[in-house]
Amino acid sequence: MFDSLQERLQGVFEKLTRRGALSEDDVSTALREVRVALLEADVALPVVKDFIEGVKDKAVGAEVLRSVSPGQQVVKIVHDHLIEMLGASAEEIDLKASPPVVIMLVGLQGSGKTTTTAKIALRLKQREKKKVLMASLDVRRPAAQEQLRVLGEQAEVPTLPVVPGEPPLAIAKRALRTGLLEGHDVVMLDTAGRLAIDEELMAEVAAVRDGVKPHETLLVADAMTGQDAVTVAENFRDKVGLTGIVLTRVDGDSRGGAALSMRAVTGCPIKLLGVGEKLDALEAFHPDRVASRILGMGDIVSLVEKAAETIEQDEAEKLAKKIQKGKFDLDDMASQLKQMQKMGGLSSLMGMLPGLSGGQMQKIKNAKLDDGMVKRQLAMLSSMTPKERQKPELIKASRKQRIVKGSGTSVQELNKLLKQHMEAARVMKRVTKLGKKGMLRGGMGGLMPPGGGNPFGGGQ
Predict the structure, then answer these.
(1) Sign of CA pseudo-dihedral 405, 411, 412, 417
(2) How many CB atoms lie within 10 A of CB 43?
(3) What sign results for the dihedral spanned by CA atoms 112, 281, 216, 221?
(4) Closest CA relative to residue 70, chosen from 20, 11, 35
(5) Which end of the chain is least crowded, N or C, by CB within 10 Å?
(6) Which residues contact 211 (CB under 8 A, 6 or more apart)?
(7) How far lies 218's CA from each of 9, 95, 189, in Å?
């Protein structure tokens, strides 16, 4: 999400920060470009107007134009306003109520309500150690209740047994009674959707709301629908009342306009983001981190959190012992690539690293350092024998032909992979020789090849 906006804004601010002094015209020109970038990202026009006016009032002030680094000051002002527009601070699901806490999910058909219900239930079970019960109130869509039951089995979260012919309000009340009797902490209600908003849908959802009084009413909206998602949010807020928004399919939306508009237009916080199809592909929405990523400042906190969640302690300790002995074979490389995939892939990690300018990101794209490359590398590594992975020097002409045939790749790609491994192994040996004190003296520079070179391998 935000890829196109990130690219445009970084280009604008790179020009701005390179200049020693700024005139009022410089700031106005930059803000015109920011305005165009936001509109192209599908941000609502009233939101763009308010944003630009708020930034301009502060950015053309004397304290900015006369400061030591005026360009950086303007970037900071834009950063602060982005955070304000996105919601100032992160707000996750509120569970501060007498159990069972009722959470109702609403939205249009096809927005991903049922999958999101299971994702939230799994998140609450794993992170908050809550006992969750799920219930489907969707009696119209064929197999909707069965879909939630199957997802419940995958997440190992119980679902309310289906009673044929039971209306939505009766299901909701039965779910609440079951939750009380069986000692559940949370009861999640997956309501029915329609292809478009209509009076019947709103009346049904309002009846459930009045009957069970949910503590949280979350709108599930598809980020891919852009400004339509904002209109849907306004309708549900006005007619049902919302406590928060969950945006789905954000991994498929490169513009991000819906996310930037939603909080400003509706006043409802975005609480969670659906970032993939798997049940654990759900993230908290942090306005400050998102703003930093949009402006190319990286997101080290999320990167560390993601690493802590996905890195397996045993594997990490095993690799650390190998590195201490100066060893790093192709099995270790395969393990690292798999770890990278678990953390969201190369493109996701790149977006979290601070200090990468638009030009540097473009170079990485041009070098085709994408997630497809990682998959091809893993295919080549899987096509090797255990002995070849332990002793890469065995891989000569005939073995290379076998490996590339088995993985559907080319000899050039295999050579690049082997060279990349050699570079990584060389760095590992250098770490061992330098030791902790040497590393502190030489820093990362001590690990680089004498003539510089490409840290990703391939000799570019």
Answers:
(1) positive
(2) 27
(3) negative
(4) 20
(5) C
(6) 169, 172, 173
(7) 31, 13, 10
Tokens of 27: 């700031």
Secondary structure class of 186 (helix, strand, coil)? strand
DSSP 295-316: TT---HHHHHHHHHHH--HHHH
Question: How many alpha carbons fall within 13 Å on the CB side of residue 163?
Answer: 11
In whole angstroms, what is the distance from residue 132 CA to residue 285 CA?
Answer: 22
- Residue extents of the structural domains in the chain: 3-86, 101-294, 300-447
Residue at token pair 């165009």: 36
Long-range contacts of 301-304 (CB under 8 A, 24+ apart): 302/352, 303/349, 303/352, 303/353
| Angle subtended by helix axes 70-86 and 24-40, to nearest 10 | 30
Best mean pLDDT range from 179-183, 365-369, 418-422: 179-183
Instruction: Look at residue 266 in the predicted model and tell me its pLDDT.
Output: 84
Residues 6+ apart with CB under 8 A from 191: 104, 105, 106, 113, 137, 138, 168, 204, 205, 208
300-447 folds as 434 Repressor (Amino-terminal Domain) (1.10.260)
The reply to whether 300-447 shares the fold of 3-86 is: no
Alpha-carbon Rg of the chain, whole angstroms?
A: 26
The CATH class for the domain spanning 101-294 reads alpha beta
Nearest to 109 by CA among 220, 187, 207, 216: 220
User: Exposure pattern of 367-377 as b/e (b: 16+ CB <10 Å)?
Assistant: eebeeebbebb
Residue in the structure block whose two tokens are 């190319």: 296
Mean pLDDT of 220-249: 87
One of 3.40.50.12780, 3.40.50.2000, 1.20.120.140, 3.10.180.10 is the CATH number of 3-86, namely 1.20.120.140
The DSSP code sequence of 118-137 is HHHHHHHHHHS---EEEEE-
- Please, what is the Cα angle at 448 between 446 and 450, to 5 degrees? 95
What does pTM read for this prediction? Answer: 0.66
Give CA–CA dist 262/15, Å, rounded: 30
Q: What is the pLDDT of residues 1-41, one digit of tens each?
A: 566 677 777 777 777 776 666 677 877 888 888 888 888 88
